[in-house]
Amino acid sequence: MKYASFAAAAAxxxxxxxxxxxxxxIGDLVVHHPMAFETASSAMSGxxxxxxxxxxxxxxxLIAVEADFPRVMLHTTEMKDDVARMMHVDGIExxxxxxxxxxxxxLHVMFMGLNGDPFEVGETIPAxxxxxxxxxxxxxxxxxxxxxxxxxxxxxxxxxxxx
Length: 163
Fold this sequence. Notes:
This protein is mainly beta and 163 residues long. The chain has helices spanning 6-14, 16-21; strands spanning 23-26, 29-37, 45-54, 60-67, 71-80, 83-88, 92-94, 99-102, 108-112, 124-131, 135-144. It is globular, with a radius of gyration of 15 Å.
């Protein structure tokens, strides 16, 4: 299964000016560069990353992400006894005038239930971000190649899908 539908591809063409910058906007919020890394063929889940800038005067909350997977959750990563654990969160606050970044080893979107259909470089994943006040914003996560340097990346291949 490929994640980008014809409608999503057509929407990308319609928004060509924002697609080159890979930004999406709703109200005072700007979502920058939604992306996911390619996954191994055996991966059961994959992480999604982005930044959200709140240019408004009021705090906003991201309360959900919807996509065509059995489960999609907001997660954070916590260290305990030198072991990283991914924890579900009910929402993520985006303070007024600030940017919140989702990155490997920290906040991320967890796409669960790949079921043998890995994320491949060049694919796109249509999703909807649900904000408490601003409402629904359709975005597209680009699947990119994993880097070999920089911050450590979390292995989502054996993530427990029960919590």
